[in-house]
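Box 3.1 A note on notation
Throughout this textbook, protein chains are presented in two layers. The first layer is the amino acid sequence; the second is a token string describing backbone geometry. Keep the layers aligned when reading.
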Amino acid sequence: MGAVKIICMFEFAAPPEAPPDFGPPDAEGWAEPRDAETRVLLDELAASYAEGSSAVLDIDAASVGPELAALLARRDPAAAGDVFDVVEQVAGWVRQVAHAEAGLARALAELAARAEVRPASMGTGYRSVNPVTNAAVVVAGRCQLTAKQAEGLVGPAVQLLRDFPDTWAAWWAGLIDWRRVRAILDELGGQDPSVRSRVEAVVLPRASQLDSVALRKLIRQLLHELAPVSAAQRHQVARDSRYVVVTPASDGMAQLEARLPAEDAAALNTALNAAAADLKRADAAAGGPVRSKDQRRADALAELGWAALTACADGATGHAMFGRAADTTAPGDITTGPAGLAGHAASADSATATATARAATNAPKRRARPVSVHVTIPFGSLVGLTDEPGELEGYGPITAQVARTLAEEGVWTWLKTDPGTGHLLDMGRTRYRPSQALADFITARDRTCRMPGCHRPARGSDIDHIKEFAKGGTTCAANCHTLCETHHLLKHRGGWTVTRGPDGTTRWRSPTGHIFRRPPERIGPVGVRPHVAAPSGPSVTRPS
């Protein structure tokens, strides 16, 4: 077929005339609407398209709160066309989180200020019984926090709203985050109010442009120039905040954190370095595996603890072991109190044997209770029939292998448990007088302080009558439970009431009217396990 010349493939129609509601078309064929309402609608539509397609997000122009929240909610980081936009969204969320955290602080401070958590019976005779600790227990029960975590929220919130309202306002506005707020609280909290306000006024305008480290440096520089309090006095105040805390970690490990006077920390560090050097030579002489310096230092620190327990077993008291009593003026002082140490356990069917590696002594009036570390291990795991985990008091589950190793040198006490629930029913009493046996049973049964949110070990806590002895309460297992010193005082002076059900669940009524239920601890293995249930914890009921 011969070539065919295509003259026209498409026909182009002329632009239609503008509809009646629109004006004449422009050169590109667009017509402006005559109706004002239609023009507004189109303008809003065009603006929304422009906002959604813009690669640059002006986060700083949006006010924190509903406006910024709505802007961020419309932005999907995965759909951002420009990485600049993603960074801006991160910055926006940081501001919005700061705003939310400031709102939480305001609510916490208000809770601590309410009369319900400041009952007249609280008094002023005990430093640990105060509105902060009382409010913290309520927050812990309601929000599934530990009491210590809740205190870490309530305490700074009260201080911030009371002493640093301008810092709180900057936080609420999203200008600074919690790290910078914390820096201001830490560095200025103990200062004279006049100095505190002067330094705060200087640093706040710059705080939004500084990170927390730079902010701390600036505050310290100003304090050296303005603070009338001498360095020695500030050091004494700082020394009052010394502490040591153990926090459970994963895989059978734990974190040990300490805040110490610098000279004491230096002494401990020097001792660990010297011990690590000795261990390095010992490793080389033995021809065994070579440990790293960090491992040798950690092992040396652990040996210090076990050596102290051995000294207790040999009859030494805390004063004899550490050389001096508490002194609020001498640097590097050490105070000692009840300590929990070594122990082990096992179970057969409905019986659980607790092997307690106990550093007991016949020396008169050394301690109210023997010093020991307690480990509970099912009997099947103890004899190698199963690998069910043991439990280290104050920590939690540990592997069967570790529990068996600890049990090899332990003194055993049999714990009889319910095979259906794992709850403690009875324990061996051949070693103790009846009153001591009852206290040991309650301690072994409860494991920790029974106040909602508290996980302080029961060993070293108080045995409290649920129904007061003076009001007819009996001294028996059903009417007694363990409470740490702080929460024992709060129970009697903070407006709390508690009852214990037949199944061992304690029912707490807070001064705010909230009801919290804390189920009993499971000690032994459970015989029937049709499914794995979620771990039990305190529940909350709205007051009627």
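The first strand starts at residue 22 and ends at 25. Residues 1-16, 327-371, 429-434, 528-537 have pLDDT under 50 and may be disordered.
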